[in-house]
Fold:
Amino acid sequence: MTTVALPQSSTGEAAAGIVVLSPGQLAWRRFRKHRMAMAASGGLILLLLYLMLGGLVLSRGLCAPTGQYLTGEAYANCNDTSLKFQAPSGAHPFGTDKIGRDVLARTIYGGQISIIIGIFAAVVEVVVGVLVGAIAGYFGGWLDDLLMRLTEAMLIIPPLFLLIVLAKSLGGKIPEIHLLGRDFSGSVIVIIMVIGLTSWMYLARIVRANILSLKEMDFVSASRAIGVGHARIIFVHLLPNTIAPIIVSATLGVANAILSEAYVSFLGLGVQGATATWGNMLDGAYQYLETAPWLWFFPGLLILITVLGVNFVGDGLRDAFDPRSR
Amino acid sequence: MVNYVIRRLVQAVPQLLVISLILFLLMQAFGDPIATLGARTPPRQEDKERLRRQLGLDQPIYVQYFVWLVGNDWMKLDLNGDGVPETPGKRQGVLRGDFGNSLVTRTPVVRVIGERLPNTLLLMLTSELVIILLSLLIGVYSAIKQYSFFDNLVTGASFVGYSMPIFLIALLLMYLFGVNFKRWGLPSLPTVGMFDPAIGRTPGQIALHMILPITALSVISIAAYSRYVRSSMLEVMSQDYIRTARAKGLREILVILRHAFRNASLPFVTLIGLDLPFLLAGAVVTERIFAWPGMGRLFIDHTERADFPVLMGILMLTAVAVVVFQILTDITYSFLDPRIRIA
Structure:
């Protein structure tokens, strides 16, 4: 965890001089050699472009009930019940759902929400995990005992049950939010918090273990000797030295959060209302297993592709930051 | 050893209490259980009040939790609402093994869970057996043939399997083997339920209905477990004692089975031991898709109806099982690996 970047000679442009690479640059070099991770990064960038720009091109059309020509998310929410359960065709490449909305347009706008949920849930996970782990590891004593017993207590309930209980009890408590020209169902925030708050435990344990060994090192004693405060020691001296597992956990956390969102929404406890997510597009879709397989196939496939890509990148990052870990 | 077990149990008690309190409080926000009752004829207001008193829902939340925990057979309740307690309570509380009655069916929670538990165990233990056998086979074989075509194929497949949402694989399996096989006139597999009501609950029927859920459950776990077996096999294969075994002319199969595999399977025991209690919880999503009448489906069905005695029962049963299995796993491990001492 505490690899010190040794000066390395580079055979690049600076042939004569010695180039000193930062740990980040070293990690990037190793990451580039991981073929699957590089391919997955490319795939994820394409996917993000599709989710961000696809709506401009692919989500437009005449909405028959209102008689208007709609673009963007409005088209994704336009329900023309005379067109319900249409199989994939030229006009609707992914078909239409049970109230006649275009599935392709909904996978684009649903995907945006799913990715947002994935990223922000991972942020919550990292913030809570790092804080709990760092405080427990650094201060030790009764605080450590208390926080670690709490962490263990969270781990003895099956994670999906914990998700269901939290999602059900917090669901519907936050009203709709208007942000960046879009309406977000308040349940998006709830789901982000719920997923983040049920997934920080492993990260907290890793951070705590690393801090426990780091805090005994001389540079920490030196900082203390010159009167550096606790907060500064933790955030400036200790945490940067344990950044590798945090980055890896955060990456894999995004994949897990996207899956968790899909599971919770699949069970009907996820994001509510008109806001599409890949997960809630699947809610109830299994009832049309025979009659409308496109309802579950396309969102499911997109979840698989995204999670697979993020997992590959996470694997590459792990190898890049800690070459000994394999 | 005895000290260790006692210390772990003593540690677990406050944890279980705290987690039960948190879960109990969270469930208060599930909505009004009374409101979801009496779907056909909405009960009158005074009936609702009486029902609330009978179920103890009129009490403040801390009293409800306390009654759930230790029962109320030592106090008198006011069931007719005149402000004078007259009826002795009957509940014994969780600590004495009484999990209360389901708010929906009015039958004891223990019986509600008891009806579902065998179904879940049947499905999950069979899957676990399939998972252990196949992931050991695949993991060991790909470790022996490291970087072969098979190994690379398995590596790629396990990444896909590991990233696969369970509902996608379940729906794909149902669509292929249930729907399309029937359409093509091939022998198709049943997709939902535990048995065909027309034929009845025969072992053959149940086995047939288990094939698809078990496949769906296994694929994802095999992906993760076989990687684990592979890497611990590879680690052991590079040890000196393996080289010694080979140097003294032992046949390769014996080196692998007797020297490498036995040591490599040790961490696998821990993994299985820690995962087993979660089987009790069932697979919520899988049971929902395949309409399997198990604990996972019980949990999600009763979440919708805010039936918190049943939910608390399932959660606490699982939590206790997790604690017990953690201790059992540690003890087993110390038997299997004499280098490990627990104190």
Summary: The mean pLDDT of chain B is 84. Strands of chain B lie at 76-77, 87-88. The longest strand of chain B covers residues 76-77.
